[in-house]
Amino acid sequence: MPTPRQRTIWYAIVAIALAWTLALTGFFIARKSKQTAERVQQFMDTMNLRSLSAAERAKRLHELVDKLNSLSPEERRKWHLDRDFFRELTDEERMWFIDAVLPSEMHVVLDMFDQMPKEQRQQQIDKALEELRAHPDPKRDRGTNAITLSPEVEKQIRTVGLKSFYSGSSAQAKAELMPLLLEVQHQFDSGRGLKDFDR
Predict the structure, then answer these.
(1) What is the distance between the alpha carbons of residues 65 and 57, in angstroms, rounded to a whole number?
(2) pLDDT class for 56, splitting at 50, 70, 90?
(3) 82 φ, ψ to 5°?
(4) d(CA 56, CA 8)
(5) Per-residue pLDDT averaged across 12-34, rounded?
(6) What is the predicted pLDDT for the residue at 57?
(7) With helix as H, strand as E and coil as C, how does 28-81 read?
(8) CA–CA distance, 138 with 182 (Å, rounded to integer)
């Protein structure tokens, strides 16, 4: 029969083993549940909005927005808005969706961008477009992240500023501007935009 000291040691060993088991279980659950651009894309691909009622559509779209907004900045840059999916949305849904998924920090970036002199705005847009074109993504052919800005749109952005142009744009134009906006935000986040702004 074990002595009281031996029982205490066994209880301690069992408690430690149990604590480690719980910690490892929590770690693996958290790791598995981490949101990635690939998982968000898979969720979006299986939504099948046409077969849903208005209430179900709204619920699924809110779920998608929650998943998108929980992505890290790195994962957010990997995600692409699918043109076919976007076409399935009503005009009202498109406007809501674009505004809902635009990162909150983007509004600060847009304000800072519009405070830049015209020449610096042009340089920043040139850098953003150059970066996007220099690192093409095969998924962009399928998504609205394809860089297809017309010369007229580029001219308006450079003249009136991103924020003013974005505010008055249609949902389709906002979706087409999203990759450029995200790249401009990335430049500001990395300090490149702020460095130009300080000059």
Answers:
(1) 12
(2) very high
(3) -75, 130
(4) 56
(5) 65
(6) 92
(7) HHHHHHCCCHHHHHHHHHCCCHHHCCHHHHHHHHHHHHHHHHCCCHHHHHHCCC
(8) 18
Contact 71, 79 (CB under 8 A): yes
User: How far apart (Å, rounded) are the C-alpha atoms in residues 136 and 153?
Assistant: 21
Q: Give me 12's structure tokens.
A: 């301690």
For residues 116 and 49, give the distance between their C-alpha atoms in angstroms, rounded to a whole number: 41
Structure tokens at 169: 């744009």
Across the range 3-20, mean pLDDT stands at 76
CB atoms within 10 A of CB 124: 22
Residues with Cβ < 8 Å from 106, sequence gap 6 or more? 181, 182, 185
pLDDT of residue 24: 64
33-67 burial: b if 16+ Cβ within 10 Å, else e: eebebeebbeebeebeeeeeeeeebeebbeebeeb
Site of tokens 């691909």: 45
- In sequence order, which residues have a C-beta less than 8 Å from that of residue 15 and are 6 or more positions away? none
Q: What is the mean pLDDT of residues 64-91?
A: 82
Burial pattern 168-193, b for ≥16 Cβ within 10 A else e, equals: ebebeebbbbbbbbbbbbbbbeeebb
